[in-house]
Request: fold
Amino acid sequence: MKKHWPYFLIVFLLPVIAILWWWGLFSSASVETAERGDYTYAYLDAEGAYSKLAARQNEVLFYLKQQGIVPGAQVSLILSDPRTTPHAALKARAGFLIDKDAMPAAPLKIDTIPVRKVVVAEIKAHPLFAYGKAYSALLEYSEKHQTTLHLPTLEIVKSSVLHVEMPLEEPVPSFMPGADA
Reply:
């Protein structure tokens, strides 16, 4: 049996470790504070498990292409905290950044995010690992600075890099997306 260990390592374990390394298992998210914003995005509202946002983004992509609008980076505006909200009640917006002059038609909606001070967690990794690592970094930042995770967070995926922007301060409710003001 001891004779087979080297073969096991070479044939199975090393390739698996190499793949996990390539996917970013051993990567960590960088965190910085910055001013970000002045984004215009086309979106559709999403409700339910966040793991299903990709299907909603594919719908947005279909409508943008159908209307001749060039999509930019993929975005998700996370409105509910999955740690405290039942999965069926989670709310988000799924879409793409677009040019400021683009005017998408229904069923797409359009909104802007102004320049604001945010904490940005950034990581290049497979989505299987990236989201958990980015949000863990934001939670560590929040704990270190004796605050909480502030919503809404904005997730931007560009060139296989996930950027999660968390407002430094809790937004005024009347300025939160989806608020009835």
